[in-house]
Specification:
It is a multi-pass membrane protein. This is Membrane protein. Belongs to the UPF0382 family. The protein has four helices and no strands. By secondary structure, the protein is mostly helical. Helix 1 packs antiparallel against helix 2 (33-58) and helix 3 runs antiparallel to helix 4 (104-125). The chain has one domain. The chain is 77% helix and 0% strand.
């Protein structure tokens, strides 16, 4: 499980850098400042959670089942949150109907919050 967490963190981080460069260099010709800022929020949160997965992989005091739960919440949260933000920010230059995914951003954010809460309460319950 820890190998999968590290590999996923590396992949999510790599994609965040690619999307960040894509936004900064290619999309600035086509998007407004507000749209670029929105796109950057998706990149930022994606990178935060890549680091979160690396941190998670170093924890030796968390049960495998809990690691898997947090991992799944983070992956689903990043896909929904950052993915929907990328689509919403670029809706003016794509044919994608953004009304289809309007629910995805808050749901993805909620899953990310739950992932952090699971980690918080798991560690809080530990006797130190």
């Amino acid at each position: 499980m820890k190998r999968r967490i590290v590999l996923t963190g590396a992949f999510i981080g790599m994609l965040a850098i690619i999307f960040g460069a894509f936004g900064a260099h290619l999309l600035k010709k086509y998007l407004s400042v507000d749209q670029l800022n929105t796109f950057e929020v998706g990149v930022r949160y994606q990178m935060y959670h890549a680091f979160f997965l690396f941190f998670l992989s170093t924890r030796k005091d968390i049960a495998e089942k809990t690691l898997k739960t947090i991992y799944n919440l983070v992956v689903a949260g990043v896909l929904l949150f950052s993915g929907s933000i990328y689509l919403l920010a670029t809706k003016d230059v794509t044919v994608f109907d953004s009304k289809i995914i309007v629910f995805a951003t808050p749901l993805g954010g909620f899953l990310l919050i739950i992932a952090w809460a699971v980690l918080f309460f798991t560690i809080l319950r530990r006797k130190s």
